[in-house]
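Supplementary Methods S3. Input chains for the assembly prediction are listed below.
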Amino acid sequence: MALSRQRDVGAGAVPQAGLATIGGPVVTAEPSAATGGAPAPDRAPVAAHRSEFLYFALRNWKFVAGLSVVLVFIAAAVLGPVVAAHAPLEFNGPTDQPPSSDYWFGTTSFGQDVFSQFVAGLRAAFLVGALGGGLAWLLGAVVGFTAGYRGGAVDDVLNMLTNVVLVIPTLAILIIVSAYMNVHSYTVEALLIGLTSWPWAARAVRAQTFTLKTRDFVDVARLSGRSRRQVITSEIAPNMSSYLLMMFILLFGGAILIGASLDFLGLGPATSVSLGLMMNSAFLSSALVLGSWWWFLPPGIGIIGIVGGLYVMNVGLDEVFNPRLREL
Amino acid sequence: MLRYLARKIVVYVLTFFVAVTIDWAIPRFMPGDPVEGLLARMHAQPSAEEALSGYYTQAFGFDVPIWKQYLNFWAALLHGDLGRSIQNFPTTVSELILGALPYTLALLVPAVLLSFWAGNKVGAMAARRKALDNTVLPVGYVLTATPQMWLGVVLAWVFALTLGWFPVSGAYSFDLTPAWTLEFAADFVHHWILPFAALFLVAFGGWAIGMRNMIIYELESDYSNYLTSLGAPTKLVRRYAYRNALLPQITGLALALGAVVAGAIVVEIVFSYPGLGTLTLGAIQNRDYFLIQGIFLFLITGVLIANFVIDIAYVLIDPRTRTGMQGGR
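Predicted structure tokens for the full assembly:
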């Protein structure tokens, strides 16, 4: 659980099942031309592969719907602060106003503009997702590839490390670290999240590497004298690229959820704006009792939109990469 | 089977060891002097600062060599001594945590078990059934992407403030004291439903989706195809698929525990439910570091115990771990 989204990915991080929640057995993930819509045969294989991917991706409603929602929020995060008429932390508006033409999403009981806070919060969410999810992805991939490819004692040590970090609840460790360390920026918060949420990814990558490393093409690469890193980056990783992509999407969404919980607890950067902090201040100012729904609804809708959009996109991708999952 | 459990226990003991070490190390090795940092954030009066500084130095045991600090920390811990709370001085941290624990468990345990059961059932029903799948899938993804605290706030807004069906906060009415009476039990359940629902719904979405995806994989596998080609009824094939899909879901349950605990913490805060979450928020706001450290250790111990219970359940369910052939995690 993600919160991770550990909740959802948790169910998927199962070596023996081949991480079914985020992707099928990688070997079968190559869409075969026989399933329909064969691309022009005379094109270069890479181009054919890409156009085939696009062919199926753009016809998958889950992928398209998820991507569209995420793109809408990205556009809001990029353009919102530009068009917003007020600064997010400015205190000089009317207090507790419902949405109006001047204050699109209404105002808080401190006289702040909810719309400009919302779009600034979206930026913070994408930052935490990209940095935190990115770091967790990198750590998970490095640990997973190393443990899976080298095996033996290295695997034992890395696997033990993974299992230990896996069991410790991410939020608990973040609470104690952030309590002692004053978190001043979202970069620091994202790095803390990244450092604690990589284990399930490492386990998933390790399991996949195990199944791939005994294949002939890997043996050939090894015999031809390529270094360990070259074999991993040019033979193993490309064969599970779909898997790695989906892993990144889930880690991205999970990091946003964890970040929101931390901010809600008041452990994030206090002088800034984020969706979690909006919920925190709306809650602490009893926006609920005052009936200021325009204050506490937007941050949650923003998070559901981004994270839910990413998850739905992910199922779509899964079906694109794995023909067996497509609706018959 | 014994080897399997023994390996698990080694991991758990090691994890506990690491957790205690983190708990000990963070105040000591974070940049800056922790005592000064504490005092600076407390905004205490200058006259009080000196006394507090002396108290903290002694309480953390900073006046002895570092290796001895570590041993002292373990010794105190094994005696059940987690220090005293600052905000509720002189109550001990252990007393505060034990007082809050029943409320957290009352929320967590039913939410985890019921959401796991219901989510798996619904997810299994939805797989490969177009009409149902097209409702379960989007609903499940929206639920699983919902921050629990936000869902809690929305539930409180709709069902408590607008409709008035349930109370907004607390675990029981102010005019009652906890007792084993029917009146109290009814009042308790009345207060319990909304925070429970917030936890249940979010977790439910995740399990339903996980099971739906797993079942599809199982129904595509060779044994399912073989059974189908033999003319076995769909119901039977689905039952076998369900059993096989349940195993990874149980592994997922162990992995999800941390997130579930995190969800309980924030939901309790929304409903001012007097469990560990509300205690955590108070500790953070009052910079009650001993309490934060104590809660941290307690959460980890709880998650470790739960993990072990799940391991045993896994052994009971998956015969392969029992015969030592393969399987397990």
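The radius of gyration of chain A is 22 Å. Residues 1-43 of chain A have pLDDT under 50 and may be disordered.
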